Amino acid sequence: MHETVIDLLAQNENHAEEFDSRFDDVQDGQAPDAVTVCCSDSRVLQDHIWGNEDPGHIFTCGNIGNRVVQRTEAGEVVSGDVLYPLVHTGTETAIVVGHTSCGAVTATYDALTDGVSDAPGIEHCIDILAPHLEPGVESLPDDLDRADAINHLVEYNVDRQVELLRESDDVPDSVDVVGVVYDFQDVYGGRRGEVHVVNVAGETDVETLREDHDEIAERIDRLWEY
């Protein structure tokens, strides 16, 4: 057995010992308070970024580029893994979680600007992102270096995913949709690992957001107000 698997199983023993009694209330079903759509990046610890240690509290979805849609014969629709808790478990909060220096956004940027290609499975994901990010790439300020351009597009991508959720007829009107960026690279000036709110129900103006949500005003910030 590979050493990594052995180490992971050892850590699972610790997990099982700690969590043994925490499943009592959720063994027969779930009613998570929020669904999060995160990027599948090893640096983004999907539950830990919220300090979550409660089974049943957060329904976590992950894919490269924190995409909320998939392609079907009927066209582009909200992904089933995102939609499931919103229509079947009473979950009324959806959080799109982008992160600084996102590899999927970088790959999409490179595909749109330089025609860079990748393995077919990765290209499939990029092809879903590309139409939504292309207007953002075309609108980027001219004075940005590559790293800043990518981080601007991370916000733009979060905005588009929020928009896709809000415009879908499959998502109940009662669902609150929030967009955030997880920063582990000192981009927003806070502590590494902080989540910064960039979009609430489609609103992206920082001053408006801070006025409307003064209880979290210090956590609201954006790099790009386009």
From TrEMBL:
Instruction: Tell me the InterPro entries matching this sequence.
Output: Carbonic_anhydrase (IPR001765), Carbonic_anhydrase_sf (IPR036874)
State the UniProt keywords alphabetically. Lyase, Metal-binding, Zinc
- E.C. number: 4.2.1.1
Q: Keyword Lyase on this protein?
A: yes
**Entry's Gene Ontology molecular function annotations:** carbonate dehydratase activity; zinc ion binding
Provide the cofactor note recorded for this chain's UniProt entry.
Answer: Binds 1 zinc ion per subunit.
Which Gene3D superfamilies does the UniProt record give? Carbonic anhydrase (3.40.1050.10)
What domain of life does the UniProt record list for this protein's source?
A: Archaea
**Enzymatic reactions:** hydrogencarbonate + H(+) = CO2 + H2O
* Record-linked SMART domains: Pro_CA
Pfam name, any one: Pro_CA
Instruction: Enumerate the cofactors the protein uses.
Output: Zn(2+)
Q: Which residues bind Zn(2+)?
A: C39, H99, C102
Query: Which enzyme class?
Result: lyase
Family per similarity comment = Belongs to the beta-class carbonic anhydrase family.
What is the protein name stated in its UniProt record? Answer: carbonic anhydrase
**To which species is this protein native?**
Haloarcula limicola
